[in-house]
Amino acid sequence: MKRPVILLAILALALALPAAAGNVNKSVRVDAGESVDKDLSTVNGQVRIGDGAIVRGDAETVNGGIEVGNDVQVDSLSTVNGGINIGENTKVEGDVETVNGPISIERGSSARAVGTVNGSLSLSGVDVRADVSTYNGDITLSDGTTVGGDVRILEAHRRSNNHRDRPLRITIEEGSVVEGDVIVEDDDLEVEVYLRGGSIGGEVRGAKVVEK
User: Fold this and answer.
1) What is the pLDDT of residues 112-155, one digit of tens each?
2) Is residue 101 within 8 Å of residue 120, measured between CB atoms?
3) Smallest Cα–Cα separation from 23: which of 46, 7, 49?
4) What is the Cα–Cα distance from 111 to 94, expressed in whole angstroms?
5) From CA 125, how far away is CA 102, in angstroms rounded?
6) Share of the chain above pLDDT 90, in %
7) How many domains does the chain have?
8) Separation CA 19–CA 108 (nearest Å)
């Protein structure tokens, strides 16, 4: 997820979803244990997926958060203005993405890639097969999280928060591994890497390692 496509793709929801019937100003819910064979989409509303549910489609909203329980299967998750919280042992086949909002994923869950524009990422015991990325959010990897690709701080053409009160932080805690590199693409952003028992298989580029 090292491209600005994350922003373009999610913002495209704001144009595409109003044309969809029914769920413009409503929350969308899948009950525990339910199985659905369609995309879940809304504009102004939350998306909630209960424990053990199977969603053979994408879950998307523009103005709202996404709450996913334990032992869920879903194709992908994305929102523009809202956070995404994912419980334990949930499998996301594709990407988990937000523009303005944090992402939190719990132990035993997995995704192809995870990324935000403005929002923190907290991954606890998670398997990410590709990249973890953000433009302007702290990243915490804990409880044996594995990132199969890179951790990337992407370059913003117009950064709204040029005067941060502290550097952006990447924390890699005990047992967590970044198999690729830690890469800061934005020369104007100060980034600190805290290695608290975690490891990086590749290089650290554009960031300062302040704790080993």
Assistant:
1) 999 999 999 999 999 999 999 999 999 999 999 999 999 999 98
2) no
3) 46
4) 6
5) 17
6) 79
7) 1
8) 36
How far apart are alpha carbons 150 and 143 in whole angstroms?
A: 18
User: What are 24's two structure tokens?
Assistant: 């413009």
Task: Locate 8 and state its tokens.
Answer: 């373009």
pLDDT at 152: 97
By percentage, how much of the chain surpasses pLDDT 70? 85
Residue 47 has pLDDT above 70, yes or no: yes
Q: Are 96 and 106 in contact (CB under 8 A)?
A: no
Cβ neighbours of 169 (radius 10 Å): 16
> pLDDT tens across 148-202, in order?
999 999 987 665 554 567 899 999 999 999 999 999 999 889 999 999 999 999 9
Q: What is the pLDDT of residue 13?
A: 55
**Domain around 84:** 5-211
How many other C-beta atoms are found inside a 10 Å radius of the C-beta of residue 77? Answer: 29
